[in-house]
Model the fold of this input.
Amino acid sequence: MNRLTRMIGVMAVLAMIAVACGDDDAATTTTAVATTTTAAATTTTGGETTTTAAAGPLAEYGEDPGAADEGLVTKALGPVDPSDEDSWNIILASIARAHQDLDQATIDKAMECWSNADCETGTGGEMVMGYADGGGDTVNVWRGVSHMEAILQALTYPEIGRIVSTAANFDFDPEVHANHVRFLVQAGVDFIVGYPDVGVALAAAVTEAEAAGIPYLSFSAGYVGLPGQEGALIPGTDYTSVIGEDLCALGESFADVLNDGVGAGTVGMLGGTPGNALTLGWQRCTTAGLADGVDLVNPPANENSTTGDTYWVNSFALEAVRGLLTTNPDIMGWVYEYSDGLYTALQAYDELAIPVQNLTVALRTDEQTLFCDWADRNEPTYNIWYSAGGNFQSRVAVTAAMLALQGADVPGQIVVPHVMRQVTAADCNPDRVNAVVSGTSLVPDAVLALMYGSN
Done:
């Protein structure tokens, strides 16, 4: 706890300032969003950031929800209603640090940390952030962007002097995932942010981290087992926090889209890695929420299992859709959390000469590959609804960890609100840095261009 003690002492001397990476030429006035706090002004000169004192409910911890730019809130989430006050303030405080006009030194450092498993941030800070992904930067773009979001967030905290990252790359052996968490503990990290693809199978390693005084926080509704599931850990009790949507509400939203769009007919369901809580959570409530007459062609075996497992790998999604269409060519709807995966999977329609007609799709993420394909097909009976990519949730996990380490009361479940939106032609942007990156990501284009280049 020596690092934490020193960090608190430094923050007391600095009168609880909020530190963010900014650009000295950028405007520093921001609009308060659903809060009564006052935004902090930031300027950057020669790589050094100067910040005026924060105000509001998290001011004593150096955070300022009122500094969140309204445009970035809308970009990340859409036109949502705020969640509970404690969750919403942390979400806004996180977005307040998501500056879009980064100086070149910050961009270079972010790329260095994204490209290397271990990096020094250059601040001299004594804290170490651990990042444990059950996937990884190379398995799909969504994972790489979420990793970068967390790195950029960490770079706004001068207390963090080192970032150590691991990636299990969807390894089928749960012990690989668990050993990565244990590796981070041995590496001396002060907190761990991650996504637990193996769910309950990660429980022992997470428990060991928390017992060692290392907070574990998962994003994208990455519960270490859903509440009530055998062997599941309890967020806020057994581990520090999980950040993400209300999964049952999300699943019910998906069901509403299918019920309205299909009316009566068959639908198919896809998911991610077996055992992950995100898929299991929404699939349970989508299955239960389907109206009479809307029949699921591949129902889960039981309430504790998922169906249509694709590991969020595009080729696996194609195989799954091809198999379901071969025996059910009249499927009228699909539900999945991964837009780009479905984009690849739709090749099965072309292979099998099945027209994409009278089709309703409900999705979570918003990679515009699928949206541009939808525009090109120009089929008026084919409609897509989506929520948000959610990449920025890894930023929320970093900020929540920094709050928790200072003794702030961080909710065990930081609820990220969601809303369903219908895809229109405007959702296909030909000038997007890369079509596979979610339009709702808060990673600036200058960084995305270095990560993935042009289309």
